[in-house]
Design brief:
heterodimer, A: mainly alpha, MetI-like fold, 2 domains, two-stranded antiparallel ribbon, flat, B: alpha/beta, D-Maltodextrin-Binding Protein, domain 2, eight-stranded mixed beta sheet, two-stranded parallel sheet, globular
Chain lengths: ~230, ~400
C-alpha cells in the first residue's frame, strides 16, 4: 500500500491493466495474426509464405465486391428500420412507462434469453410457404399467389432487424430516461410547440443513445450477413 | 440426424471458402501439438492396446439406448484392442486445417485412422504429400470384398493408402404431394411448375456433376468450356427465379414440410428421413457418387489400423454398421456400404434396410453415377466463380 500511496498517479494505470491485458491477448494478438496471414501468398498444395501480398486485398474486393456492398446495404436498411421502430418504443417506456418500466424493458430483452439460432429456426416455421403468415398475406393480395417470404432479401433484412432491435432500443432508452423533464417543460414555457420541443430538446439530448445504438446495430448486423 | 445434416453441410460450405480454413489450422498448430503417440510408423505385427479412430458424427452403428457402438465393442472382444472412437470430423477443410500443422512438421496427430471425402481436395492432397501410411494389405484379406467400382480411384489407383468407409449418391429428391416425378435436371431447372420450389446443392462437385451430365459433358474431365456452360445454365435458373436457394443438406426439413417440391440431394439423407412422400432418384442423365475413405495418417499404427479395416470389411460387420439391428435396437449409417456381401448378411437381420435401394443401390443405379474431376476441385478460378454464383 505504501508504494501505491507514494505513486498515486500509477493507480489508474494499474486499474486499467487487467482490461488492457485481456484485450491485448484476446483481441490484438489474433487480429495481428490475421493481418499477418492476410499478407501471405501461396497455395494449399505447397503451403503459404509471408510476402507482403497486398494484392490479396485487391483480389478480395475485385472478386467479392458485390457481397461487400450488399452487406452494407442490408445492414444500413436494418439499422434504419431498427431506429424507426425502437425510438417510439424507447420514448414511450422512458416517459410513460411509469412503474411498468422494468417489466417493459424485460420484455424487450426477453427474446435474448433464447439463442439466436433457435429464434431464427422458429421464424422459419412461422414464415414457411404454407404457414399462417404467408397464407394471410396472399389472401390480402400483398403477396402474389405463388409468392413467398422465406429465402428473400426482405426476409433477411427483417430477420436482422428483429435480432438486433434490442441493441438499438436499450441505449436509446438509457439516454431518453436521463433527460431532465424540466428542460422540456422550460421549452414549452418559452412557447415551443410540442413538436419543436422534441426537435430542439429531446432529440439532441438523446443523440448519444442514438449514436451508440446505431453503432451497435450496424456493426453486428454488418457482420451477420455476408 | 441433424448432426449428419450438419456434417454434410459444413463439408460443402467449408470446401467452398478456401481462405477461411487456414486460421483454425494455424491456431490448432499453435495450440499445442499432440502428446506422445505411436512412435512413428510401426509395421510390427503386434496389436496396439488402443486404436485411435477419428470419424464424422453419426457415422457408425449406434445402440439407441446405450449410445454405444456395437461393432466397436465386438472388435474389442475379438482382438483385445480398445477403439478410442472420436467424432471430431465435421468437414474436410476444417479437419485438414487442424492436422496439417503437425503433419507438415513430421509429427504424429495421435490418430490411427481418419476418414476424408474424395469429392474434396484434401484426401488426394494427403496422399500426394506423403502424409499417409501404406496399408498393410497382408492384414486385410477381406479387401477382396471391396466393390469393383471402388477398386481403382484416381487418387489411389491400387488402394495402397485408402479404403472406403461409406459412399453416397447425389441425385434429385421430390415430394409427390406437390409435383409429378422429377426425374431429370432439365425438369428440375426449367419446369415452370417448380418455380421457386427448387434447391440446388452448394457443393461444387455435386451440383456441377449433375448439370454437366445433363449438358452432355463429362464431369470426370472438366474443361473451361464445360465448366462455363454448367455455370451459365445454373445462373439462368437463378435469374428466372426457378432456384430458391443453394443448400447443404438443410434442404431436408423444407422438403418434408412442403416448402420445396424438389431438391438436388444426397441419397443417405433421404433414406434417413424415411418419408413415404419423398422419393429420390438418379437423374435421367446420371448422378454423382462420392466416397468417404479411411486412411492411416503418418505416425499411425499401421498393423492395428489394417486389422481394424479387415474387421469392418467382414460382410457381417459391414451389415451391422450399415443397417444396424432392429432386435437389439441399433441404428445403422444408412449411406452406401463399399463391402460386397453386406447386403446378403443384412437381409437376415434387417431386410427392410437391405432392400432399400438408396442404401444398397442396384447395379443399374451404380452404373449411372459418376465421379467428379479432382483437378477441378483444386482450381481456384473455378472455386471463386462457384462461390460467387451460389452467394450471388
Amino acid at each position: 500500500m505504501g508504494y501505491l500511496h507514494r505513486h498515486r498517479q500509477l493507480t489508474p494505470y494499474l486499474l486499467l491493466a487487467p482490461g488492457v491485458l485481456w484485450l491485448a491477448v484476446f483481441f490484438l494478438v489474433p487480429l495481428g495474426f490475421l493481418a499477418y496471414q492476410s499478407l501471405q501468398s501461396g497455395n494449399i498444395d505447397f503451403g503459404y509464405a509471408f510476402t507482403w501480398a497486398w494484392g490479396n486485398y485487391w483480389n478480395a474486393i475485385r472478386d467479392y465486391r458485390g457481397h461487400f456492398i450488399r452487406s452494407l446495404e442490408y445492414a444500413g436498411i436494418a439499422t434504419l428500420l431498427a431506429l424507426v421502430l425502437s425510438y417510439p418504443v424507447a420514448y414511450w417506456i422512458a416517459f410513460r412507462g411509469g412503474r411498468w418500466k422494468n417489466l417493459l424493458l424485460l420484455l424487450i430483452v426477453a427474446p435474448f434469453f433464447v439463442t439466436y439460432l433457435i429464434r431464427t429456426l422458429a421464424w422459419e416455421t412461422i414464415l414457411s410457404d404454407h404457414g399462417v403468415v404467408v397464407n394471410t398475406l396472399q389472401h390480402l393480395h400483398i403477396l402474389a399467389p405463388g409468392g413467398r417470404v422465406l429465402a428473400t432479401s426482405t426476409a433477411v433484412v427483417t430477420g436482422i432487424t428483429y435480432n438486433f432491435l434490442p441493441f438499438m432500443a436499450l441505449p436509446l432508452y438509457v439516454s431518453l430516461e436521463q433527460i431532465d423533464h424540466t428542460l422540456i417543460e422550460a421549452a414549452q414555457d418559452l412557447y415551443a410547440s410540442k413538436w419543436k420541443a422534441f426537435l430542439r430538446v429531446t432529440l439532441p439530448l438523446s443523440l448519444p443513445g442514438l449514436v451508440a445504438g446505431t453503432l451497435l446495430t450496424m456493426s453486428s448486423s454488418r457482420s451477420s450477413w455476408s | 440426424m441433424t448432426d449428419v445434416l450438419t456434417r454434410r453441410q459444413l463439408l460443402h460450405r467449408a470446401a467452398a471458402g478456401g481462405t477461411v480454413l487456414t486460421l483454425p489450422g494455424l491456431l490448432a498448430a499453435c495450440g499445442g501439438s499432440t502428446k506422445e503417440s505411436g512412435s512413428g510408423s510401426t509395421s510390427s505385427h503386434k496389436l496396439a492396446k488402443t486404436l485411435r479412430f477419428s470419424n464424422w458424427t453419426l457415422y457408425i452403428d449406434t445402440n439407441n439406448k446405450t449410445h454405444s457402438h456395437p461393432s466397436l465393442q465386438q472388435f474389442q472382444q475379438k482382438y483385445g484392442t480398445t477403439v478410442d472412437y472420436t467424432e471430431d470430423i465435421n468437414d474436410n477443410a476444417g479437419y485438414f486445417g487442424k492436422i496439417q500443422g503437425p503433419l507438415s512438421r513430421g509429427q504424429s496427430i495421435g490418430r490411427d485412422i481418419i476418414v476424408l471425402t474424395d469429392n474434396d481436395r484434401y484426401l488426394s492432397l494427403m496422399i500426394k504429400k506423403g502424409w499417409t501410411e501404406k496399408l498393410d494389405k497382408s492384414a486385410i484379406p477381406n479387401m477382396k470384398n471391396l466393390l469393383g467400382v471402388q477398386q481403382h480411384p484416381g487418387f489411389d489407383p491400387n488402394r495402397d493408402y485408402s479404403l472406403p468407409w461409406q459412399s453416397g449418391m447425389t441425385g434429385i429428391a421430390y415430394n409427390d404431394k406437390l409435383t409429378d416425378p422429377i426425374l431429370s435436371v432439365d425438369d428440375l431447372l426449367s419446369n415452370p411448375k417448380l418455380k421457386g420450389k427448387v434447391t440446388v446443392l452448394n457443393s461444387m462437385g455435386d451440383a456441377l456433376s449433375l448439370v454437366m451430365l445433363s449438358n452432355g459433358d463429362d464431369p470426370a474431365k472438366v474443361t473451361d468450356q464445360s465448366f462455363n456452360n454448367a455455370i451459365k445454365r445454373i445462373e439462368a435458373a437463378v435469374h428466372s427465379k426457378q432456384i430458391r436457394q443453394f443448400t447443404g443438406n438443410d434442404y431436408a426439413p423444407p422438403l418434408a414440410k412442403g416448402d420445396l417440391a424438389a431438391a438436388m440431394s444426397w441419397s443417405g439423407d433421404i433414406a434417413q428421413i424415411g418419408n413415404p412422400h419423398i422419393h429420390w432418384n438418379v437423374p435421367k442423365d446420371g448422378g454423382a457418387l462420392w466416397t468417404d475413405n479411411m486412411i492411416i495418417p503418418k505416425g499411425g499404427d499401421v498393423y492395428t489400423a489394417s486389422v481394424f479395416m479387415n474387421y469392418v470389411y467382414d460382410p457381417k460387420v459391414a451389415a451391422e454398421i450399415e443397417g444396424g439391428n432392429p432386435k437389439t435396437g441399433d441404428t445403422g449409417v444408412y449411406y452406401i456400404s463399399p463391402v460386397s456381401g453386406a447386403r446378403q448378411e443384412l437381409l437376415k437381420v434387417n431386410p427392410a434396410i437391405a432392400k432399400n435401394t438408396l442404401i444398397f443401390p442396384t447395379k443399374k443405379m451404380l452404373s449411372t453415377v459418376h465421379l467428379f474431376d479432382n483437378n477441378a476441385l483444386n482450381n481456384e478460378k473455378y472455386l471463386t466463380a462457384w462461390q460467387n454464383l451460389i452467394s450471388g
